[in-house]
């Protein structure tokens, strides 16, 4: 930590317990939203993969229907397959990026939790059970 950032950190007012807890809850809520989005995108990627696997063995001139903006459009396998592959690759890239961001956010939340010695309700109950069993 540089001298300037140390001086800035020392002049910041200490956080109240409610602010600490609220920030941790916000961090975990953001992680939950990311997990939901990743799950949704993985479902879409799997659908693209299934379509790709279905179209690949077919003749390139065979009719294929594609949903574009809510309208079903008639194309050929040769026209549809490249876009399905590209969309799947793009989904793979987005999922990878979101997983990296999720990992970073979870790490930050864990550090915040450790820094302020926060405990979830489940952890408190488990600790109480351990204490009861020990006595």
Task: List its salient traits.
single chain; disordered N terminus; 4 helices; mainly alpha; two-stranded antiparallel sheet; 75% helix; 135 residues
Describe the overall structure.
With 135 residues, the protein is mainly alpha-helical. 75% of the residues lie in helices and 9% in strands. The chain is built from four helices and two strands. The chain has helices at 3-11, 17-55, 77-115, 121-134, and strands at residues 63-68, 71-76. A two-stranded antiparallel sheet has the order 1-2. A hairpin with a 2-residue loop joins strand 1 (63-68) and strand 2 (71-76). Helix 2 (17-55) runs antiparallel to helix 3 (77-115). The longest helix has 39 residues, at 17-55. The protein starts with a helix and ends with a helix. The model is unreliable at 1-8 (pLDDT under 50).
Short description:
It contains four helices and two strands; from the N terminus they run ααββαα. It has 135 residues and is mainly alpha-helical.
């Amino acid at each position: 930590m540089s001298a300037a950032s140390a001086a800035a950190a020392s002049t910041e007012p200490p956080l109240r317990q409610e602010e600490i807890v609220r920030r941790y809850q916000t961090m975990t809520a953001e992680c939950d939203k990311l997990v939901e989005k990743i799950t949704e995108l993985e479902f879409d990627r799997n659908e693209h993969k299934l379509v790709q696997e279905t179209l690949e063995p077919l003749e390139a001139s065979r009719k294929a229907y594609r949903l574009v903006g809510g309208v079903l459009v008639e194309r050929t396998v040769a026209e549809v397959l490249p876009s399905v592959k590209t969309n799947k690759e793009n989904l793979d890239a987005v999922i990878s990026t979101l997983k990296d961001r999720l990992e970073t956010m979870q790490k930050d939340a864990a550090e915040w939790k450790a820094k302020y010695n926060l405990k979830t309700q489940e952890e408190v109950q488990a600790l109480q059970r351990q204490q009861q069993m020990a006595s």
